[in-house]
Amino acid sequence: MTSTEGYHAHVYFDAQTIEQARALCEMVSAKFDIRMGRVHERPVGPHPDWSCQLAFSHEEFADVMLHLALNRNGLVVFTHPLTGDDLADHTEHAIWMGGVRELNVGMFRKA
Questions:
Q1: What digits encode the pLDDT tens for the residues 2-12?
Q2: CB 12 within 8 A of CB 47
Q3: Looking at the 3D structure of the chain, how many domains does it have?
Q4: Is residue 35 part of a domain?
Q5: Domain residue limits at 83
Q6: CATH number of the domain encompassing residue 18
Q7: Residue 106 to residues 18, 31, 52: CA-CA distances in angstroms?
Q8: Do residues 62 and 75 touch, judged by C-beta distance below 8 A?
Q9: pLDDT score at 13
Q10: 20-74, pLDDT tens digit by residue?
Q11: Residue at 99 is within a domain
Q12: Strand ordering across the sheet containing 35-40
């Protein structure tokens, strides 16, 4: 099994759902004492939509994922492990809730 340094969950939103996404990210961050990134009101990196990143450990994976699944209220959530292979993490290892969005993975080189 590939070792992981943790996980990132990216909550996607738009102008109509920004407050919903911010509230979800703040709630999850506080409940599990995990790192919440900036709320980006533009596409950043490989992400096609506005997003906010939540960073968490393997030990928190099940609880964070369940909480996101039960409380995303229609928002799309993209989660991936941090294995050191960005291309595989954002494609082969991707976990999607609520839909699949096409990522711009051209920035990642094959490891």
A1: 688 999 999 99
A2: yes
A3: 1
A4: yes
A5: 7-107
A6: 3.30.70.1240
A7: 27, 35, 21
A8: no
A9: 98
A10: 999 999 999 999 989 999 999 999 999 999 999 999 999 999 999 999 999 999 9
A11: yes
A12: 35-40, 50-56, 7-13, 77-81, 95-97
